[in-house]
Specification:
- By secondary structure, the protein is mostly helical.
- It has one domain.
- Helix content is 67%, strand content 2%.
- It is built from 12 helices and 2 strands, in the order αααββααααααααα.
- Strands 1-2 form a two-stranded antiparallel sheet.
- β1 and β2 form a beta hairpin.
- α2 crosses α10 and α8 runs antiparallel to α10.
- The longest helix has 36 residues.
- The protein is globular, with a radius of gyration of 21 Å.
């Protein structure tokens, strides 16, 4: 590897990192404004023009607040838990193709950090790691309410991880590759996978909302019942990392859905990266819209939805895809 290639890789890491962290305060502001309009309120309007700097003000406030660690907490795991929640969501973006090969300064540069041939498995593995941060946060705090919130989150994320993974089998069967770049290329030659895999796409999005602990699946927090859930004992920058992790997971889940089901960067007239950001923004808007529309599910309904509804639907999607491929022969992979 030459120094130029190393510098390009480092530049990509910095760009992806800044993109994710820059999107978080923007998403915080957008969510507050949109939910305010949905509920006929103003939303943030004091810090900056139309409240645009509210996310930055919140970040500075949390960063400068006193950091308190409970006396009987397991300090190592207590500090490690927020990192385990945030880092996997950022690492997922490393295999997301934001566009095709671009020419920058006379050099061909791929608009993705890496293209492993098992990218989908890599994404699923990192998604499973995120639950460890939540569980360790609840357990290491030595607070029974935090532990209850962590147990809820573990049960919820395990329940929805299964149909989420199964929903990705449908597009993988059609394309015949685990590479996200190959999946986008197939859609360029044929059609968006959300059309032949509509049922799988719906299952993936519902499970994605549950995986990010967003309303109406925000049972691990449940402030009316468990104070604030697994992060009750966290303050200052550690609490900010949990909040950043939630929005980073929203971005990563939406980016995977765009790449696998909605054609990735594909689109007419506009630059490929712009098309990717438009689709990404549309799915992030959907996350916010759901929060403003639906009430929190009861816990037994949450579990029934995952195991008795979404899991069978994911299996039905796999079955229908297999039948369709058998009927159509090899058309889908040509």
């Amino acid at each position: 590897m030459t120094w130029t290639q190393l510098l390009i890789i480092l530049a990509k890491i910095v760009v992806i990192f800044l993109f994710a962290l820059g999107m978080v305060p923007l998403l915080v502001w957008a969510e507050r404004k949109l939910v305010g309009h949905f509920q006929q309120r103003i939303g943030p309007h004091r810090v900056g023009p139309d409240g645009i700097l509210q996310g930055i003000a919140d970040g500075l406030k949390l960063f400068l607040k006193q950091d308190i660690i409970p006396a009987r907490a397991d300090k190592l795991l207590y500090v490690l838990a927020p990192m385990l929640s945030l880092v996997p969501a950022l690492m997922v973006l490393g295999v997301i193709p934001f566009g095709p090969v671009a020419t920058i300064g006379g050099r061909h540069v791929e608009l993705y950090l890496a293209n492993p041939n098992v990218a989908v498995l890599y994404v699923l593995a990192l998604g499973s790691v995120g639950v460890y941060g939540v569980v360790l946060a609840g357990w290491s705090s030595n607070n029974k309410y935090s532990l209850l919130g962590a147990c809820r989150s573990a049960a919820q994320m395990v329940s929805y991880e299964v149909p989420l993974g199964l929903s990705l089998i449908t597009p993988l069967m059609i394309v015949g590759s685990l590479s996200l770049v190959d999946i986008v290329q197939w859609q360029q030659d044929h059609t968006w996978l959300a059309l032949p895999g509509l049922l799988a796409f719906v299952v993936f999005m519902v499970c994605g909302v549950a995986e990010t602990n967003r309303a109406p699946f925000d049972l691990p927090e449940a402030e009316q019942e468990l104070i604030a859930g697994y992060h009750t004992e966290y303050s200052s920058f550690k609490f900010a990392m949990f909040m950043m992790a939630e929005y980073a997971h929203m971005i990563s889940v939406s980016a995977i859905a765009v790449t696998v089901f909605l054609g990735g960067w594909l689109g007419p007239w506009l630059p490929p990266v712009v098309w990717f950001l438009i689709k990404l923004s549309a799915l992030l808007f959907l996350f916010i819209w759901l929060r403003a529309t639906f009430p929190r599910l009861r816990y037994d309904w949450l579990m029934k939805l995952g195991w008795l509804r979404l899991l069978p639907l994911a299996l039905v999607s796999i079955f229908l895809t297999a039948v369709g491929m058998a009927v159509l022969g090899g058309w889908v992979r040509t």
